[in-house]
DNA sequence: CACTAATATTAGCCTAGTCTAATTATCCTC
DNA sequence: GAGGATAATTAGACTAGGCTAATATTAGTG
């Protein structure tokens, strides 16, 4: 039988946490990520385990199986293709596409994804700079990207990735003209950790709190 | 609170039956249309009545209220915009779009519909020739269209509408080269009611059983 | 090593939507 | 106008996913 959108959301959450922590994921972490109680998570873990999508060691945590990961990658591919379509063709702001894609990813068919990818000319990154898995569900090496906080005053970098899920961070970046592709001159790093940067299309410098800059990654300019 | 996709499907079914019969709709008719038991329908009727989306006269039948009709029209608009997108931009055959649209219509936001309509250049008919309600949810007068069976041998007509939901009928029409816009010369109507027609792009005539022709509507050619 | 805090699981209840079986209402025919 | 057929509703049970409260396990601290 087919997996429900809710079950799929659990798999995605577990995958995100695995990438973040590189170790088995605890019940309470999933509960926090999704916003349900630990009791609900325990029960969903049972059903996902029975379907062979994860391995559960009671009182220890869970790990996705190959099958579980495959489902997640399919979802991520659909999600990022949808986000790309929304920004590139429906004129959505890149700050507004995540929620729509997060709903639709569970309802578009594989056929739809294949055809949408062709329509979009097989894009490799989404509007937030995240890689789009290809048809074989291979994720291109997340090219070496470094948090903005690792650079030093005087350097010029290009914004590579911005967070897709945190509304406030998205709005902050949008309002200050930062998005994937924006070139930045790193003017100064203040004592309290605020970065003063000058975007390529602006005259004045913009202050970015560390709390936000930590989640923005950038590449050194090839120039 | 928001309506579930399932509740929305009930409203659509009732609306379809109302259009077809122009009288209050009975429980068993809804059950047949959706494929559930009468007991399930009775219970859903209660919830939709409580929400003011239909009026139920026990043992007599239901009628949609204005609010109920509005929800249906919004769904129909989304459905037909999606079908148009799928055929015109994702290269789906017009025979294959109904099912995808029937799922997605419940999950795309109003914002998405608005933007998709703009992207598509505000189309007024879908790939089956059905009218697309506009933003104000007005359905353009279903322009006078007559079933193919009403025409007589010797006339030339243009196919205006084909059925969107019946898989077998869709396949039959597709395989015989009939779709909205196809021009037909009505060669003969046989005693048993089979129509012999010649599509504009074919040399040979094609036989269409009455059972199918009844569901295809056409306009007399303006030529 | 025992105690406590944190975490996980289980038990039991709720809602939405489904079903079958039982009951009730309506309608049609004689 | 009564009887039987048909349709509608109600009762009661099941599943998925949620919750709270109770219980069990683990881990860390003294
Ligand atoms: Mn996203
Ligand atoms: Mn999602
Ligand atoms: Mn359709
Ligand atoms: Mn539908």
What does this entry look like structurally?
- Chains A, B: InterPro entries: DtxR_MntR_Metal-Reg (IPR050536), Fe-transptr_FeoA-like (IPR007167), Fe_dep_repressor (IPR001367), Fe_dep_repressor_sf (IPR036421), HTH_DTXR (IPR022687), Iron_dep_repressor (IPR022689), Transcriptional_repressor_C (IPR008988), WH-like_DNA-bd_sf (IPR036388).
- Chains A, B: Keywords: DNA-binding, Transcription, Transcription regulation.
- Chains A, B: GO terms for molecular function: DNA binding; DNA-binding transcription factor activity; protein dimerization activity; transition metal ion binding.
- Chains A, B: Belongs to the DtxR/MntR family.
- The structure is a homodimer of 223-residue chains.
- With 223 residues, chain A is of the alpha+beta class.
- Among the domains of chain A are: 60 residues, Arc Repressor Mutant, subunit A (Orthogonal Bundle); 75 residues, SH3 type barrels, CATH 2.30.30.90.
- Chain A has eight helices and eight strands, in the order H-H-H-E-E-H-H-H-E-E-H-E-E-E-H-E.
- In chain A, a hairpin with a 6-residue loop joins strand 6 and strand 7.
- In chain A, helix 1 packs across helix 4 and helix 2 crosses helix 3.
- The longest helix of chain A is centred in the middle third of the chain and has 23 residues.
- The termini of chain A are far apart.
- In chain A, 32% of the residues are buried.
- Chain A binds a DNA duplex (30 and 30 nucleotides) through helix 3.
